[in-house]
Amino acid sequence: MIKPVVVANWKMFKTPSESVEFVDRLKNKILDWERVKIILCAPYTSLFEMGNSLMGDGRIDLGAQNIHWESEGAFTGEISAAMLQACGVEWVIVGHSERRVLFGESDEDVCRKVMTAIEEGLSVIFCVGETIQERKAGKTSLVLGEQLGTLLAKLTEDQLRKLLIAYEPIWAIGTGLNATSEQIAETHHILRRIIEKTFPSAASQVAIQYGGSVNQGNCKELSEVSEVNGFLIGGASLDVDQFGEIVKTITEVKNR
Ligand code: PGA
């Protein structure tokens, strides 16, 4: 069984002190820590202090929301893998639709970021997902095949183990309108088949998460979808109590 994994994507929210307060409160929650993986992806400015607060804890992983594909250089405003790792970061989100759509990141940019992250020792939460127009036009599997296939062609099987896939239909992100259980099951199947094409034996071990308006109210139903190995949560991850309840729910459902 793949251990359920719950990722918080705080986006452009929380100051360093708010972030550390969240960590302190999460650490005190009664969760089945051994049976779930928790990753907090915070703004850059929070990472150093969060890293200090999580040092030696071992129950919560720290993640960033972006990375540059070069190791260092004249790239104003960018951040490198080594800088993130120095703060205790082990994960990075790459390919989020907000980066693709609002900041013009292409499949090629996204692949370069993933390769650098992995080569420098980070693990990657790789986001894919279709627009509502693409879904209505029956192009979902084509789009996912391009987004994921381009990357898989560059990876070795060892590198694949550093990857966590997040399926995030763009129309479900921040809209309050989550994909249905049937849509999620079907799309996760498609993704698993895409991975199998390149990695027939390792595909079953890759965790595929769902993201898009996951909250305390719908997390039980979404956890019941057997194809779902975890969640990538935006808005609902900002509140530590709600986040804790979602973690509790998926841990219970997946471990019963
Ligand atoms: P949401 O965001 O949970 O607020 O829909 C998910 C995401 O963008 O990762």
Task: List the ligand species.
Answer: 2-phosphoglycolic acid
SS-derived structural category: alpha/beta
Q: Provide the CATH topology.
A: TIM Barrel
Strand content: 5-15%
Largest sheet: 8 strands, parallel, barrel
* Number of separate structural domains: 1
CA gyration radius, whole angstroms: 17 Å
List unreliable stretches of 5+ residues: none
Sequence of strands across the biggest β-sheet: 1-2-3-4-5-6-7-8
- Secondary-structure element string: EHEHEHEHHEHHHEHEHEH
How many helices? The count is: 11
How many strand elements?
8
Shape: globular
Walk me through the structure.
With 256 residues, the protein is of the alpha/beta class. The chain has one domain: Aldolase class I (TIM Barrel, Alpha-Beta Barrel). It is built from eleven helices and eight strands. It has an eight-stranded parallel barrel, surrounded by five helices. Helix 3 links the parallel strand 3 and strand 4. The longest helix has 18 residues. It binds 2-phosphoglycolic acid. The site of 2-phosphoglycolic acid has 13 residues, from strand 8.
Q: How do you describe this structure in short?
A:
The chain contains 11 helices and 8 strands. The protein has 256 residues and is α/β, with parallel strands linked by helices.
Layout of SSEs?
Blueprint: E1 5-9, H1 16-27, E2 37-41, H2 44-54, E3 60-64, H3 81-85, E4 91-94, H4 97-102, H5 107-119, E5 123-128, H6 132-136, H7 140-152, H8 157-160, E6 163-167, H9 181-198, E7 208-211, H10 219-223, E8 230-233, H11 240-254
Parallel strand pairs: 1-2, 1-8, 2-3, 3-4, 4-5, 5-6, 6-7, 7-8
This protein binds 2-phosphoglycolic acid (PGA).
